[in-house]
Amino acid sequence: MIIAIIILSANTLFAQKDDYVQDQLNTMTDHDSLNLADPLDGYLKTAAENNPRLKSLFNRYLAYMERLPQAKSLPDPSVMFSYYTSPVETRVGAMRGGLSVNQAFPWFGQLKSQEQAAAAQAKASFEAFDDERNKLFFKVRSTYYNLYVLESAIRITNENITFLETLKQLANVRLESNTGSAVDLLRVEMDLAELFNELEYLKDSRKPIDAEFKELLNVDDIGNILIPDTLSITSIKNGKTPLIDSLIANNPSLRKFDSEIEALVNEAEVAKKMGNPSFNLGISYTNIAKREGVEDFSGNGKDAFIFPQIGVRVPIYRKKYKSMVLEKELLKSSKIQEKENRENALLTELEKVWRDYLDAQRRVVLFQHLSTLAGQSLDILLAEYTSDGTDFEEMLRMDRKLLKYELELEKARADQSTSIA
Asked: Are 57 and 125 in contact (CB under 8 A)?
């Protein structure tokens, strides 16, 4: 009965769950708030759900979470049974067998430090998952923006072909009425041939980008990828300084180093506490046979209990514990230096991306303006050609400029969105 109570108490202690586990799982569930009405956000959700690398890292995180109940649990109690093949005679009877139960207890606070170290390791594993998810999201976004540029190029090229077909008809009408030149007709046919060739190349270029996008989403069939006609752009209004502060505070790779450093601090504390004494408490039971053939006396055949049994483990050899603490301290210093190096690299990368963002922002404004001017110039040249048949070559040149400016505008929009991503 006493043994059953001890084992039941131990199992109850081992089964207790730390609130941190559930908090982390809840954080994982609602870590992202994606606007699923936006097609791109829907693709991001699909990629996050299907990517095998993310699944692997998240399962690793869950595995680390399972270390928490292991770290805070007491060592298993030991139960020992003894049976005497040759009973040992005592004054009150022969000793036939015995049973003992022992439970080890580490130094005060060691289990808590072990639990905190395991929790920090689990958090570091989650930050690695979060970092990988950010990288995946960036790949999905940048590939999506490449698709947008390609679709825009196909659309703009088709519109330009339609315009040149109209010019071809106009040049043919003027030629038939003897007010135009056959050279004008040949020029527009040359431009059309080039545009048709470019259009076929653009269509062929869609296949590898579609394949890359499909690979990122890890789906067999994604149907027609929904691409907007015009890419909506959000601007960064508060400048670069808030980005630097946010990067240092929120970047998952930096937070991962913080968690690893926290784990090493707690592991060093565990090593220190392991250098302190630990204790053993137990009870023992001995079965005594009643002596026969003798006059009854007090205590004849009475079982003997010895309670409590107390043991102390004394860590005499201190060198290994000092070495364990020093090991954790050196690893902590190494992680601090790795974090500093990573932070410097991220800040350098942010400077480059900020430059690209400003450049894309300027190019959006520039090519919007140039497209407007080129369109107005083309309208004027078209009106002049319709009335007197002059400046046909200049009109074709201006059409080419308009095509270039429109393509550059869409590329600048995609580059700005990529920089923001």
From this structure: yes
Could you give the CA distance from residue 319 to residue 327 in angstroms, rounded to a whole number? 12
User: By the 8 A CB rule, do 253 and 339 touch?
Assistant: no
Distance CA 172, CA 226 (A): 39
What residue type is 399 in one-letter code? D
- Amino acid type, 9: S
User: At 51, which helix (H) or strand (E)?
Assistant: none
φ, ψ (nearest 5 deg) of residue 287 = -90, 125
Q: What is the pLDDT of residues 28-45, one digit of tens each?
A: 434 444 555 688 999 999
CA distance 89 to 98: 14
DSSP-based three-state secondary structure for 164: helix
Helix (H) or strand (E) holding 29: helix 19-29
pLDDT 10s digits, 339-381:
999 999 999 999 999 999 999 999 999 999 999 999 999 999 9
DSSP 173-231: HHHHTTSS-HHHHHHHHHHHHHHHHHHHHHHHHHHHHHHHHHHHHT-S---S----SS-
Pinpoint the alpha helices (H) of 30-109: 39-50, 52-65, 67-71
- DSSP assignment string, 356-387: HHHHHHHHHHHHHHHHHHHHHHHHHHHHHHHH
